[in-house]
Amino acid sequence: MTTPGTVPAAPVPEGVTPALDVRNIVKRFGGVTALNHVSMTVLPGEVTALVGDNGAGKSTLVRCLSGVHQPDEGEILVDGKLQTFHDPSASRHAGIETVFQELALSDNLDVASNMFLGRELTHGPTRLFRLRHKEMETEAQTVLARYGIRMPSVRSTVRELSGGQRQGVAIARAVGWGSRIVLMDEPTAALGVRETGRILDIVRGLAERGLAVLLISHNMEQVHSVSDAVWILRGGNMVAGMRTADTTTSEIVHYITTGQGLT
Ligand SMILES: Nc1ncnc2c1ncn2[C@@H]1O[C@H](COP(=O)(O)OP(=O)(O)O)[C@@H](O)[C@H]1O
Ligand SMILES: [Mg+2]
């Protein structure tokens, strides 16, 4: 078990309130402890990477933050305020949006419709139904332009889009509604080099606009180039959190595989 304070943790600068402050989260599935007293901070205006091997607990932590799972123990603070998420809409209400591994897009609908999909949960069905499609298209275009997300057209059917463009739609849907915290579970896992580069540019752009981004990734070079801080899970334990500038790709890999830093 990890005792708080015994592992390196990325410092929070004085006067900065973390967008997300996770304290001692425990999540068990039957006999499996997926998260064992896990703590982590995510600062506003930064990309925070969350890394670890398969089964380390990354997706479970994201699901606790997005209200899909309820932790057995521990606390989640959003902008310094203690929150309990009984369901995903509670997490959204607190300003957290999640781009899940399985993007949950509707293949038969166009880009604009997908960006409005599911909004009735947080904004009420009447608002959605009152919006005519033309207005949805205009608003969708505005959001895409704001974050530099390129699409053939907001009228393109999502089925016709490339993997990177589909990821772009999912990100636009997540950030287009004033959320301040975005969680992304392996957004580039299925993408080629060029599309990966585009998505990473978008991710950096979100942070530059002041959002707090939590990025799960398997790609250490990607983590090193895009993140401001990196947190490392191993077998359900948070083994380190560091400023990216203070570490190296090989040290991160060493933490992932052994739980220890380089000496
Ligand atoms: N819904 C679930 N039911 C049972 N066990 C689960 C469930 N979700 C995750 N686990 C287990 O929790 C551990 C962490 O899984 P996960 O969070 O998916 O890891 P990662 O995303 O880092 O690959 C694994 O041992 C996994 O089998
Ligand atoms: Mg996962």
UniProtKB/TrEMBL annotation:
Record CDD domains: ABC_Carb_Monos_I
GO molecular function: ATP binding; ATP hydrolysis activity
Domain ABC transporter as annotated: residue spans: 20-260
InterPro entries: AAA+_ATPase, ABC_carbohydrate_import_ATPase, ABC_transporter-like_ATP-bd, P-loop_NTPase
One Pfam family, short name: ABC_tran
UniProtKB keywords: ATP-binding, Nucleotide-binding
DNA damage as UniProt keyword: no
PROSITE patterns, per database record: ABC_TRANSPORTER_2 (PS50893)
Descriptive protein name: Sugar ABC transporter ATP-binding protein
Organism: Streptomyces ferrugineus
